[in-house]
Amino acid sequence: MPKRLPRELRILYEVARGVAALESEPAALERLCDEVGRAFGFSSVRFVADDAERDDLVLLDVALEERRAVCAGQRVAVPLLVNGECLGYLVADRGGKPLTLSEADVHLLSVIGLVGGVFVAKAQQQEQLRVALDELRRVDELKDEFVSIASHELRAPIAVVYGITATLHERGDELDPAHVAELRDALYEQTLRLRDLTEQLLDLSRLDAGRIQVALLPFRPRSAVEGLVARIAPDRRGDVRIAIEPERELVSDPVAFDRVVGNLISNALKYGRVPVTVDGREVRDRFRIVVEDRGPGVPPEFVPQLFERFTRAGGTTVSGAGLGLAIAHAFAEAVGAEVTYEPAEPSGARFVFALPAMPQEARR
Fold first, then answer.
1. Which of 123, 308, 336, 338 has the greatest number of beta carbons closer than 10 A?
2. In the CATH scheme, what is the code of domain 144-209?
3. Strand 75-82 relative to strand 85-93: parallel, antiparallel, unpaired?
4. 341 near 349, Cβ under 8 Å?
5. What is the pTM (predicted TM-score) of this model?
6. Which of 108, 117, 109, 104 lies closest to 92, judged by CA?
C-alpha cells in the first residue's frame, strides 16, 4: 500500500484487508471490531444485534434512522448496512471517557459501516454455503450407506424366498405334505422379515430426507396398540398384555405412535421373553407407554449404543438390521416425545415412550 495515501484511505484499506478474506461471520465481526478499535484508539468495540442492551437503544435508533455513525456522550454507534438492511451495530467507547470525534471521523466510521457490512454479509453467505455443502455431503453419505445396507440386508431374505418358491414351483408335487408345510412356514417368516425390513428402510429414507410431517389427531392408544399387535404378530396376541384404559384419548401423530410402539413391541417379542406388557398411564404432563418383557434385558455395555442405527447387542441369535430402535427414537423426537430404556425387575427390558399428554396447541 502506498505510504502517501490519506489517513482515511489507509484506514479503509486496513479494515477491508483484515475482514475481506474471512469466511465466518463471528470471525469477520471480531476482526472488524479489532480494526476499528486500533484505527480510532477505542478501548472497546463490540458488535450489538437488534436485541441491544437498554442503555444503547436510543443511540442505535438514532444511528439507524440517520443511516450513519452517531456519537453521543461516551459512545459511538456505527450501523452495518447492506442493501438498505441493518445487520447490527458497532458500539465503541474510550473506557468511559467522553468521545470527541471530528466530523471527518464520524463520516469515515459511517463508510466503514457500509464496507464492513458488505464483508460481514459475504462471510454470512460463505458460512451458509459451507453449512449447505456439509449437509449435501452428509445426505450423500447417508444415501450411499442406505443403498449399501439395503442391498446387504435384503439379499439374504430375498435369496431364501426365491429358493423356497423355486422348490415349490419345480418340485412341489414330489414333496410330502410335512415338507411342503415346513417350506410354507419358512416362506411366511421370510416374507414377514422382508415386509418389516422394507418398512424400516422406507422410514429411514424419509427420516434422512426430512420428509416426516407431523399431523396431530385425536385417537385412542389402546385401540392403536391392539391394531399393532394384530398386524405385527397375529399369531402371538396372547403373548402381549395391554393395560390401557379403552376410553383414554391422546392428541398426537398416529403414524409416529404406530412406528414407535410397533418397533418396541416387535423388539420385545423378538429379543425378550413373554409375557410382553404394554402399560399406558398419565404421569404429570406426560402419557407414558411402557413396553416390558421378561427376557435377559440389554447388556449394560450396549445401552449407550441402543438407539444408534445398524447396531445389535452381541450374542443375539435373532436376525435383524438394527434399525427398529433408531427409527422409534427419531419418530418420538418428531412429536416432542422421548424413548428411554431401563432394566426391568426382576429381569427383562423396559422401554418408556413418554409423549405429551396434551400438545400445547390443544391446551389453549
1. 123
2. 1.10.287.130
3. antiparallel
4. yes
5. 0.52
6. 109
Specify the CATH superfamily of domain 7-132: GAF domain (3.30.450.40)
Q: Could you tell me which residue, 16 or 311, shows the higher pLDDT?
A: 16
Element holding 51 (H helix, E strand): none
Write out the residue limits of the CATH 3.30.565.10 domain(s) in the chain: 217-363
List Cβ neighbours of 28 (8 Å cut-off, separation of 6 or more): 19, 22, 119, 120, 122, 123
Burial class (CB in 10 A: 0-12, 13-18, 19+), 331: buried
Tell me the pLDDT tens digit for each residue of 140-184.
776 776 677 667 667 778 888 989 999 998 988 888 889 989 999
Beta strands 217-219 and 240-243: pairing type?
Answer: unpaired
Q: What is the CATH number of domain 217-363?
A: 3.30.565.10
211 vs 293, residue with greater confidence: 293
Q: Considering only the C-alpha atoms of the chain, give the largest distance between any 2 of them, rounded to a whole number of Å.
A: 106
Confidence of residue 6 (pLDDT cuts 50, 70, 90): confident
Whole-angstrom distance, CA of residue 359 vs CA of residue 364: 9
Helix (H, G, I), strand (E, B) or coil at 328: helix
Cα radius of gyration rounded to whole Å, the chain: 32
Residues 334, 310: contact at Cβ < 8 Å?
no
Kindly state the average pLDDT of the residues 286-293: 95
Helices (H) and strands (E) in the chain, counts: 9, 11
The CATH 1.10.287.130 portion of the chain extends over 144-209
Nearest Cα to Cα of residue 29 among 159, 123, 155, 103 = 123
Question: What are the phi and psi torsion angles at 240 (to 5°)?
Answer: -115, 125
| Residue 151, all three cell numbers | 442391498
For residue 88 the three cell numbers come to 447490527
Residues 104-138 as b/e (b if ≥16 CB within 10 A, e otherwise) read ebbebbbbbbebbbbbbbbbbeebeeeeeeeeeee
Beta pairing partners, 351: 291, 341
How far is the C-alpha of 130 from the C-alpha of 121, rounded, in Å? 14
Cell 397375529 identifies what position? 234
- The dihedral built from the CA positions of residue 175, 176, 177 and 179, taken in this order, carries a sign that is negative
Burial of 101 (0-12, 13-18, 19+ CB in 10 A): middle
The helix/strand/coil state of 241 is: strand
